[in-house]
Specification:
Low-confidence stretches: none
Mean pLDDT: 93
CATH superfamily of the largest domain: Glycogen Phosphorylase B
CATH class of the largest domain: Alpha Beta
Number of helices: 15
Order of helices and strands: EHEHEHHEEHHEHEEHEHEHEHEHEHHH
Shape: globular
Distance between the termini: 17 Å
Structural class: alpha/beta
Strand order of the largest sheet: 3-2-1-4-5-6-7
Number of domains: 2
Radius of gyration: 22 Å
CATH architecture of the largest domain: 3-Layer(aba) Sandwich
Length: about 375
Amino acid sequence: MKLIIDNSNLFAGGGLQVAASFLRDLKKSNLSDEFHVIQSVNCANIIGDEIFPDNFTFYNLNKTEENSKTKRIKSVKRIENAIAPDCIFTLFGPSYHKSRFPKLVGFAIPFIIYPDSPFFKLTSFKENLYYRILSVIKIYSFKKYSDALVFETENARRIFTERERFKKDSFTVGNTLNEIFLKPECWVDFESLPSSSCNILFLTANYPHKNMQILPELIEILRNKLKSKDFKFLITLQKEDLNFPEAINENIEYLGKVELEKIPSLYMHSDIVFIPTLLEVFSATYLEAMRMKKPIVASDLGFSRDICRDSAYFCEPTNAESYAVAIHSLMNNDHLRNNLVSKGTENLKRFGSSMDRTNKYLNIINKLIKNYENSK
C-alpha cells in the first residue's frame, strides 16, 4: 500500500496530538507499506527530529503555503500527483480539493454537528452568522471532496449523515488516551498544589465554548448558598486570561499552561474533574479523568453522554447552580464519588489504545482501497 497522510491543515489543539500518535503507532507496527506524510509547520515541530524508517517520507510545508489556502492546495495536489497513492487520509478535514485517488477524511468540527448548542446563545449575532457561513462552506467541502468520512463518536456520525443525507461510506473511530497516561514512569510531579482543600480540576484552553465564564457565579453559589468551604478550582489558564473579580480568585489556583508530563500529577492531586464545555465532538479529558479514577462533573449534552454514558454527574449546561449542586454533592458523598469512579473505569474499556485506533484507521483505508479497485 502507498498511503498519503495529509496533515497539512493541522495547526493547533488535539489534532496535532492525534497526528503524532498515529505516526508513532505506524512506526511501531513495522509495516512494509509506503507512508508519505504531508505536514504543517506545527505538525513538523511536534514530530521534531524523531527517526522514522525508510518507508516514511515527510513533506514539510512552509509558512507561506500554510498561510495561503490556495498555495497549500496547490502544493498538496502536486505531491499527490507525483506519488499516485492508493489512498489519501486527511486526518482531520475538511479537504478543500478533489483528488484523483480515494480520500478518507476525519471529521471533528463540533459547530457543524451541534448548531443548537447553548454556546450559540452566548455569542453575538455577528459571531453566529460567521459560524453559519463557515458551516455551509465546510459541509460542502466534506461532502464534495471526501470519498468516506470517519468520525470520533457515533453520535456525531449519525447526526451528520442523517441531516446532510451523506450517502458515501462513514465510520466511527473513537479517540483514546494520550500514551503518557499509560507510562507512570514518565510522570513529573506538579509541586505547590493546595493539599488541604477539595481540588476541582478544570483542564481547559482559553476558548469561549469551554464555558469558563460560569465560574464566578458557580463559586458564589458554593460559598454563599451551599456553605461549601475549603475548595479550589485548579484551572490551566493565567489569571489575566479571565479577569475574574478578585473576591472569586481566592477559590481559584491559576496554573497556566501545563506540560504534558505533569498533567497526570494534576489529576492525582484533584478530587473532582470539572468539564462544563458547551461544544465538542470529542474531548480526551473525559477519558483521562476515568483513567485517573476521578469523578466527573459534566455538561449534559449529546457528545458528553455519548462518551461518558452513566459515568459522569451531568448538569444543565449553562446553569451555575446545577454545577454547584453536583460539586457540593460529590464533596460530601463518598458513595456517589466511588460509584461514578467505578462506572468510569468500566466505561473506559470501550475506547481501547492508540494502537487500536491506528489499526481501525488502517482497516478502513484498506477497505476504501479495495472498493475503489473493484469499482474500476
